[in-house]
Amino acid sequence: MNNKERIARRVAREFRNGDIVNLGIGLPTLVANYLPDGIAITLQSENGFLGIGPVTDEDPSLVNAGGLPCGILPGGSTFDSAFSFALIRGGHIDACVLGGLQVDENGDLANWMIPGKMVPGMGGAMDLVIGSKKVIVAMEHCTKDGGPKILHRCSLPLTARNCISLIVTELAVFAFIDGVLTLTEIMPGSDLETVRAATEADFAVAPNLKSSRPLAAELEEI
User: Fold this and answer.
1) Active site residues
2) pLDDT tens for each residue of 134-162
3) What structural domains does the chain harbor?
4) CA 94 vs CA 77, 81, 84, 130, 189: distances in Å
5) pTM (2 d.p.)
6) Does residue 97 contact residue 64 with C-beta atoms inside 8 Å?
7) Cα gap 19→37, rounded to integer Å
8) Measured in whole angstroms, how far is the alpha carbon of residue 47 from the centre of its chain?
9) What is the separation, in whole angstroms, between the first and last Cα of the chain?
10) What percent of the chain is helix, strand and coil (3-state, nearest 5)?
């Protein structure tokens, strides 16, 4: 199991039956493949879908917001972008899952631009982080060169301030509890010292800090 799969599997455990969820491009699209048994959610995509399916290659004519084939499930619907963003801005999305370039201890998110690199734009991220009831950032804990991505302050252009509810990485799970970045869970194969060494931000440690299910149990389910 690679880091992205580990993160996606953990994020998939955050939803309740009946939730309407938007999955961002990249790593977040994997989450739909790991939903626990008995949990049925409706996936919304800002390009005009309710009820899209997991990423698949069965029908390339129906794609999610990232351009990946997804198909649509029975009972799903399509509509124009104006209606799609009305759903988002109107507070009708229970949770969104987005990738992150940087996050910080204030709950700020930077996930759309690295100065000097060509980017297509912010897309729907700025709407999702404001309109969704819960904002989950799913990302690897460090950059490709080993630098921290959970910082005192983001240095990249921000998507939004004080918007994050939960951060899930391959090392740990953080929640913002009463506005404080709090380590609530340590992922299998990690420990508190490893998390501290890989995190620049100051964070509290939850008194009921727990470890995720053992790796062996996860592997048995694949």
Assistant:
1) 46
2) 999 999 999 999 999 999 999 999 999 99
3) 3-221 (3.40.1080.10)
4) 18, 19, 14, 12, 31
5) 0.91
6) no
7) 15
8) 18
9) 9
10) 25, 30, 50
